[in-house]
Amino acid sequence: MTVSSGWNASAAAASRQRTLAALGDSYSSGEGSPPFDVLAPRCRRSSQAWPRRLAAMEPSTTVALFAACSGATTDALNESFKGEQPQLTQLRRLRTAPDIVTITIGGNDIGFSNVILSCFAWKCFWDGKDKRELDHITKELPDVLSANYAAVKAVAPHSRIVVVGYPDIFPSSQHKNTCKWLSNTERRQLTSLNSQLNRVIRRAAADADVEYVATDRTLRGHEICTKDSWVAPIGLFPPARDLSAHPTARGQQAIATAVDRRLSTDRLSTDRR
């Protein structure tokens, strides 16, 4: 694995301003780290969102498009959402194609946030099992993700397309868990569900021939329900409900650092297998 500066840019490209476009859901918009942009309040885009922190880490980089929107599913890539144009339409209408396109998507397709809220209110899975969610992840989501990643690539064929996975937001072991509402069984179910989601996302990215960045360990030791959490606590009522289980500013920076590290490595790293 080789390493180069400026996100693997050529010497010529390094002398000009690079641009980044951020697509996806709340895990890219920066939900969990208010305040949010006032011009599009429904999408809850934070100044501390990791795509913006990522650009700030590279002085010659600017965010040309910040289309990520809280609550977005894969449908938001091709359909209007919260009064905004489809994210792919926004990407297509840029005057110049961005150098980098990042995306987090899929979590809302399986209703992960509702599962987490049900854990807090009563129990994680109403029937005691997570089969419904796992079936959706393994049987329906792979083709949907592959097709949408390919669509992003088709809209920006000369951009570096980077699919970003979801971080583990629950403690890696029960002895680190400080929340009485989270049982060991539920903690393991939620961790397993997120791992399965990331595996499907990674395979779909490979099928579409785009890059994948793993972020599952970026919050290790700082998950929700730990003593030094970088994740917003869960609440049942606004505004806490909306922030629930999303990385705070420190968590956003941790994700930005992980993505920056990946972008600084050779495109043909082992993550492309």
Automatic annotation (TrEMBL):
Keywords: Disulfide bond, Hydrolase. Coiled coil: none annotated. It comes from the Bacteria. InterPro entries: SEST-like (IPR037460), SGNH_hydro (IPR013830), SGNH_hydro_sf (IPR036514). Pfam families: Lipase_GDSL_2. GO terms for biological process: triglyceride catabolic process. GO terms for molecular function: triacylglycerol lipase activity. The active site is at residues 26, 246. Disulfide bonds join 43-69, 119-124, 179-225. Residues 22-254 form the SGNH hydrolase-type esterase domain. PANTHER family: LIPASE 2, SGNH HYDROLASE-TYPE ESTERASE DOMAIN-CONTAINING PROTEIN. This is SGNH/GDSL hydrolase family protein. It comes from Candidatus Frankia alpina. The lineage of its organism: Bacteria, Bacillati, Actinomycetota, Actinomycetes, Frankiales.
